[in-house]
Amino acid sequence: QKEQIAGLESRVEQFRGQNLKLDQSNRILIIFNSIVGVLLLITLIWFLRNIGRKKGKKPLTGTTPKPNGTGASSEVGFEKLDQKLVQLERLSKLKEHGALTNEEFQQHKQQVLGNSK
User: Fold this and answer.
1) How confident is the model at residue 48, as a pLDDT?
2) pLDDT grade, residue 57 (50/70/90)?
3) How far is residue 81 from each of residues 19, 22, 89, 112, measured CA to CA in Å?
4) Rounded to whole angstroms, how far apart are CA atoms 67 and 90?
5) How is 5-73 classified by DSSP, letter by letter?
6) DSSP per residue over 7-19, as a string?
7) Distance CA 20, CA 26 (A)
8) Which sign, positive or negative, has the C-alpha torsion 89, 91, 93, 96?
9) pLDDT value for 79
10) Angstrom distance (rounded) from CA 5 to CA 56
11) Which of 27-31, 54-58, 94-98, 110-114 has the lowest mean pLDDT?
């Protein structure tokens, strides 16, 4: 009987050890999930703020009438200018990040501005 009790006690100790390991891993998972949740919440807030900022900006495409009364051609001119500005901004970002050399940047800039060489 003493052997059975000793055997049961050793099995109980094994289960306690396994239970402590599970408890520690559960704590680690809870901490990790909490950190991930906070980061996701911060990212969501940042994303929603940026969407609000983009919606608040008005595009440069206006219908300013020319003296002869043709507002449509003025709008097309603004759209083309706006597209060129966007392309130039992209080129400058590529240059800043090192994706374009200065010579490549100048060449592409001239193409955007319509001064192809």
Assistant:
1) 87
2) low
3) 68, 63, 12, 10
4) 34
5) HHHHHHHHHHHHHHHHHHHHHHHHHHHHHHHHHHHHHHHHHHHHHHHHHHHHSPPS---PPPTTS-HHH
6) HHHHHHHHHHHHH
7) 10
8) negative
9) 75
10) 76
11) 54-58
Tokens of 79: 């759209």
Angle subtended at Cα 22 by Cα 20 and Cα 28, rounded to the nearest 5 degrees: 105
For residues 106 and 100, what is the distance between their CA atoms, to the nearest angstrom?
Answer: 10
Q: What is the pTM of this model?
A: 0.34
Nearest Cα neighbor of 51 from 60, 61, 43 is: 43
For the chain, give the number of residues. Answer: 117
Q: Which residues contact 91 (CB under 8 A, 6 or more apart)?
A: 100, 105, 108, 109, 112
* Percent of the chain clearing pLDDT 70 (strictly above): 73
> What are the tens digits of pLDDT across the range 65-84?
555 545 455 556 677 888 88
